[in-house]
Amino acid sequence: MLEQKAFEFIQEKLQEALGEQGFGAATPLESETGRAVMFSTGEVAYGLFFEAQKKRFVLRSTTMKTPAEPGEWRQLSMWIFDEKENNMSDAESIANDFVEIVQGSKRREMVKVAKKRRKKDEENNADPQFFLNRLVPIFPELRREMNEERIVYGQVRAAIFAKEKVAPKCEQLALQYKGSEPLKRLSTVLCEMYAAGDMDTRAVIQFGVLNNIGDSAIANIVEGFTEGCDLQKVYKHSRKLIGKKIKPEKKKKQKKIESRLNG
To answer: Phi and psi (nearest 5°) for 70?
Structure first.
């Protein structure tokens, strides 16, 4: 059957792409709607599904409940495939789309590195991802959570990730382990990254992390700020904006300029 041949072709292409990222070999999945396989690292997984009744291929991702049990699947891409109307050329297009999705974060990282190399004379400020990586020694679970972000969304959404994942961990550490070495390291990292970071990184630290932490925890974090830390001066001002809606600046109207070519 063409559908089976197409499934095996797409599975093979995904296996090649995901194998380079540390995913294991495809394993069969039970599916009430048709055929399915899963590629897993033990923590996160991609699933390839063919829903026979609806005649469609679906790529999904999930985090694993256990090394062998997937959690709730999220749909990433879907293509209709009917052997009466489609052929292996269409299967190749589907495979290319699915592979592009699973390699998305890798491709963007390569583009970013290439741009940085071209801009040798540009100041090399720390970006939000660099800041998040500096937090991993303090909160090791962030490595797994960032990997999950990349698989589900194709990238780490720094601002959202800082608010939902980083801020709660910082608050818990500050409240439960006041004066501890991990808390001192956290305060130091915040100061260093705010000083070395670009505008996006500074915004993530101020509005993504610090503005989502309660006053008691903030006080404990600030105690560990190093001498001359710029955050000492600015964090109070940014906290005044908590809960306030900031209207975007209105764009100035520009005069329309028409260009005509004289024949």
So the answer is: -75, 155
Tens-digit pLDDT profile for residues 170-208: 999 999 998 888 999 999 999 888 888 888 899 999 889
How far is residue 36's CA from residue 30's CA, in Å, rounded to a whole number? 7
Q: What is the distance between the alpha carbons of residues 86 and 260, in angstroms, rounded to a whole number?
A: 47
Taking the C-alpha atoms of residue 78 and residue 60, their distance in angstroms, rounded to an integer, is 9
- SS3 per-residue string spanning the chain: CHHHHHHHHHHHHHHHHHHCCCCCCCEECCCCCEEEEEEECCCEEEEEEEECCCCEEEEEEEEEEECCEECCCEEEEEEECCCCCCCHHHHHHHHHHHHHHHCHHHHHHHHHHHHHHHCCCCCCCECHHHHHHHHCCCCCHHHHHHHHHHHHHCCCCHHHHHHHHHHHHHHHHHHHCCCCHHHHHHHHHHHHHHHHECHHHHHHHHHHHHHHCCHHHHHHHHCCCCCCCCHHHHHHHHHCCCCCCCCCCCCCCCCCCCCCCCC
> What's the confidence (pLDDT) of residue 149?
87
Comparing CA positions, the residue from 78, 76, 94 lying closest to residue 86 is 94
pLDDT tens, residue by residue, 231-257:
887 877 776 666 555 444 444 454 444
pTM of the predicted protein model: 0.51
Q: Are strands 44-51 and 34-40 parallel, antiparallel or unpaired?
A: antiparallel
Q: Tens digit of pLDDT for each residue in 93-106?
A: 899 888 888 886 54
